[in-house]
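Q: What would this complex look like in 3D?
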Amino acid sequence: MARASKRTKTAAASRAFPQLKKAPSGIAGFDEITEGGLPAGRPTIVCGGPGCGKTMFAMEFLICGATKFGEPGVLMTFEETGDEMSRNVESLGFNLQSLVGKKKLFLDYVRIEPSEIQETGEYDLEGLFVRLQHAVDSVGAKRVVLDTVEAIFSGFANVGMLRAEIRRLFRWLKDRGLTTVITAERGEGTTLTRYGLEEYVSDCVVSLDHRVNDQISTRRMRIVKYRGSSHGTDEYPFLIDKKGFSVLPLSSIRLDHKVSKDRISSGIKDLDAMLEGRGFFKGSSILVSGTSGSGKSTLAAHFANETCRRSKRALYIAFEESSAQVTRNMRSVGINLGQYIQKGLLQFHAWRPTQHGLEMHLLRIHDLVDDFNPQVVIVDPITNLISANINEVHAMLMRLLDFLKDRQITAMFTTLTANRGVEEQTEVGISSLTDTWILVRDLELNGERNRCLYVLKSRGMAHSNQIREFVLSRTGVRLLPAYVGSGAVYTGSARLAQEAREKAESLREQQQLEEKRKEFTVRRNVLESQIAALRSELSSGEAEFTRLTRQRNERQQRVALDREEMGKIRGVSPANQVVNS
Amino acid sequence: MKTSKVKAKSPKRQATRDTSNVTLELRLYVAGQTPKSLIALRNLKKICEEYLQGRYRLHVIDLVETPHLARDDQILAIPTLVRNLPQPIRKIIGDLSDTQRVLVGLDVRSQAK
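A: Here is my prediction, written as structure tokens for the whole assembly.
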């Protein structure tokens, strides 16, 4: 009946769209790459060298099936006992024994001890089939894992019989519609598996790889073959950590993040001013690059400080300095990060870049972001991750940025540039991924070194094109407007000298003016006094004239009177009077 | 009677590795009445009668009926003959057509020779 229902389902699926039915593996990232998971009801080979994570892949497939997808499973191991297996996956947080207790999982350890076995004539592996059938029946399994089935090649001499039996086994699994993962050792040369198992299983082959580059190991996965389905063909990094098996990328297949128009302050007023006065876009990525000691971390700390001041959470990942050291150092520019750490607004994580491979770093950041859910993530500096291959860092950053952008988290990375040359390529490699690129640079001039800051690019805003002088002071960072006189930019003491020169000049002018003013005042005073003198002279002349006139009049009157008197006395008529003047 | 035998032979076996007077506990695992199983059973009976007269006990276990025993006894190949006693356990797989190999496998001296 089960078979019948399966047939109808398959028929329905093929009518609608010839899409293979898939069984989700539950492995983070894998189901995205394969567009749904492993081929349902068919065997899949997972091959790879020792320690590449084959068993982990298989276990996660099985456990996720049992816990998440309601598909009980059978684990048949040929190399490790059930107890060993339980212990191995316990560290990943899986409890096999409880699943076994709940009848969701059936463990069968097939012990092969060649020394105990004597071969006398013909035989087959019917015992294996009986065991498998029993296991499948006892839990109603839909999924089967055969962990390194090729171990049977070590136990039996009759290789021809073994091959026939393995072929029969895979057929048997397929007939029963069991989604099976078969792990196999990597073969020498061009073969995928040591015993050529891929000949028998042609539905899906996944190859795992574990390579070491400059002492840092990276795990990679590739889907060699997936019959009847499209799939990602690249090599995908993956990792195994305390959360199990995860394949990256997690989301970078698409490029369709939400974008925000909201702004977020950089924590430096002057820098915000350079970015239309409002700071960065929320959810954008900011790259701060500069030579050593140019103040990249200080910029980052300001950003963190500002974020926390607004009661938002910030995650600070430091690859160079410990949390305590950064906190102490930032006090010198007037930033107290310690208070926010105590409040739980700022999480500080410092670890060595050499501690893990790139993927592990990435996943660790993923985990931290998942747990803490910050608005801002700062990685200081990403340069330290660049060990050998810039492409890898590029890919990792791309994934990280995708991940952060998807969550609308503003990311700030700092990179170290030693000098012009090779490092600029580094910048080019990663700068194209970021939205805003701030360069902090040293200018050596007149026997001193000064920091300069400019915004090289900032997508989606009219940012300032100016080079500003970047001054660290006890009270924080200030960006001094660059001195733009005489067609040159002055910084540091040159700027001060220029300013002093300018001041002196203006002072001199002012003094001259003052002198002129005084001179003029004196002149005016002199002239005014002259005018007064003249005026008084004039008025005294006038008075004299009036007096003389009056005197004359008085005299004339007197003469007239006298004459009249005289005439009176002489008896002469006034008509005979002679005027004597 | 059997237990006394087992106890008695223990030191003797260590000294001489002689199993000639020890009762062998044999189990033959088969899966249904397949031709191989039938041949194996026939061969085994012949060998037992010829070489182990009176000092063996044989159980034939059909895994189709008791599949859980396949896991418990670590059976993979069919047919498998297991010598449970005396220790250590020995396994002989195949249709037991090679009598000499069966005897070597069971660690039994071929008295016929």
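A: To summarize the key features: The two ends of chain B are 29 Å apart (CA to CA). Chain B is about 40% helix and 20% strand.
Q: Very helpful, thank you.
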